[in-house]
Design a protein that fits this description.
It contains 13 helices and 17 strands. The protein is an alpha/beta fold. The longest helix is centred in the middle third of the chain and has 26 residues. Strands 2, 3, 4, 7, 8, 9, 10, 11, 12, 13, 15, 16 and 17 form a 13-stranded mixed sheet that branches. A two-stranded antiparallel sheet has the order 1-14.
Length: 475
């Protein structure tokens, strides 16, 4: 009997670590196990944007400003979470002066090479630096950095990543077992450079673009440094982000068929806690030293713990002007205790920033496994959200349950074109959920509080052709 119980516990833990990893690729090559197709890794504060060039077509989008989402006028709480779908009215048809696909192709992120683009992403990491200069894939491992100078625990630098011209939205194209890696076909980490802090912030400053903005991505459990760089470049490319793409990579072991370590998840939880202070200082410096007028945050899975805890601490250390530089705070599939998030985290970060969006899904098998291990539901599970008695009114909740994604339903933020389309709409225009009718359907609780659902078949080209007119990108 005890043998059977022990086996059951081991199976549950392995399901959790495998599910939260979001992919079965080896750290080195990004190759899936035989018979499995490649899948991507897993894993605040409205501000006024600079005025956009004159608009040339309708409809206009909601201007960037601090605003309460639809709901009770007194900023009350969501309860009685019986959700009924309530479709939006259709937007007026847009008179395109070119096809959506043509409009999308006219703007690309990165340097154009013959058969691929090269995207530069910037990073901070508290992983151990192995010093392996010959192979960028092996430069940072899954251990904690332990420099002789504690103040130098974060390493700064930049990476170059290839995006093939045949790239499909939401894909992290990787070589198969039998084929060699080619920039013309695959998203690859091509090179890596380290630099001192002053040089890093100057490089980011030059990369903030015409809109003086950056985004900082924090990955989740079981993601290598290499895959964090690849994912950041893919997001920047798919979002057509005019600014500096940045990621913060913390130490987490990559698990899979070749490394089914049942202790990796608990170790990662400890490392996430350990990394929070390093990320807090890193983010504070990005806000203060890069000249960026807007800094968006994107977190996935366990990375949400790092971002949320850091923001709660920054509430006390940032000035009002610095808080106002934080743009969208995007929390995707958060592996956070639902009660802790609602009672302790959300009230603090939404008081600091009214532009917080949480993406959740009731098909997220990884978070279901996390609930089994922890004993309590995770806030990234939309089913758990529906059972909550109350949610902070300033938090916008988006249901991604209907979108096509990987078998564990955990990495939709990066591999679903529908979700990426909504992220594009959100980041490029700052429009609140009720204004993103191209990508979202409206829902209401029994009390009339607003929730939102990602439309399943949204195409990024259509969204880009619409929103780019509003921000003055297209002629």
């Amino acid at each position: 009997m005890w043998t059977a119980i022990a086996i059951g516990v081991i199976v549950a833990v392995l399901t959790l670590v495998w599910g939260l990893s979001g992919f079965g690729r080896s750290r080195k090559t990004g190759v899936p196990p035989p018979g499995q197709s490649p899948s991507p890794p897993p894993d605040v504060t409205g501000k006024t944007m600079p005025p956009a060039p004159p608009q040339q077509s309708q409809p206009s989008q909601t201007p960037r400003r601090r605003a309460e989402p639809p709901g009770s006028a007194d900023g009350g709480m969501m309860d009685d979470m019986e959700v009924e779908a309530e479709p939006f009215e259709a937007e007026p048809k847009i008179a395109y002066d070119r096809s959506p696909a043509e409009a999308s192709r006219e703007v690309s992120v990165g340097v154009d090479h013959e058969d691929h683009f090269v995207v530069t992403v910037h990073y901070g990491t508290d992983r151990e630096d192995t010093g392996a200069e010959s192979d960028p894939d092996d430069r940072f491992n899954c251990d904690r950095a332990r420099p002789t100078d504690p103040s130098a625990i974060v390493t700064y630098g930049s990476c170059t990543v290839s995006i093939p011209k045949t790239h499909q939205v939401g894909k992290l194209e990787a070589p198969s077992w039998l084929r060699s890696a080619q920039p013309s076909k695959h998203v690859l980490l091509l090179g890596l450079e380290t630099m001192d802090a002053a040089a890093f912030f100057e490089a980011v400053k030059k990369a903030t673009g015409t809109r003086k903005q950056a985004f900082v991505f924090v990955h989740g459990f079981s993601v290598s440094f290499e895959d964090a760089a690849r994912r950041t470049a893919q997001l920047a490319f798919d979002l057509k982000f005019d600014g500096a793409p940045i990621f913060f990579s913390w130490p987490t072991e990559v698990v899979g068929f070749t490394n089914p370590d049942p202790t990796a998840y608990s170790e990662a939880e400890n490392n996430a806690r350990w990394a929070t202070q390093h990320f807090r200082v890193f983010l504070q410096d990005v806000i203060r030293k890069t000249g960026a007028e807007t800094v968006h945050l994107i977190a996935h899975s366990m990375g949400n713990r790092i971002v949320s805890d850091a923001l709660m601490e920054l509430f006390w250390s940032l000035t009002d002007a610095e808080k106002n530089r934080i743009g969208e705070v995007i929390l995707t599939a958060p592996d956070i205790d639902a009660d802790v998030f609602v009672d302790q985290i959300a009230p603090r970060i939404t008081a600091m920033n009214s532009r917080v969006t949480l993406y959740a899904s009731d098909r997220d098998r990884a978070l279901a496994s996390s609930k089994t291990v922890h004993g309590y539901p995770r806030i990234g599970d939309f089913g758990a959200i529906q059972l909550m008695h109350a949610l902070p009114a300033r938090l916008e909740v988006v249901d991604a349950s209907l979108v096509d994604t990987d078998s564990f339903g955990h990495s939709y933020y990066g591999n679903s074109e529908s979700v990426i389309s909504d992220l594009c709409h959100l980041v490029l225009t700052g429009s609140r959920a009720h204004g993103r009718t191209l990508t979202l359907d409206g829902m209401k609780t029994a009390k009339g509080e607003a929730l939102w659902r990602v439309k399943r078949e949204t195409q990024l080209d259509q969204v880009w052709a619409s929103v780019s007119k509003d921000i003055g990108t297209l002629a």
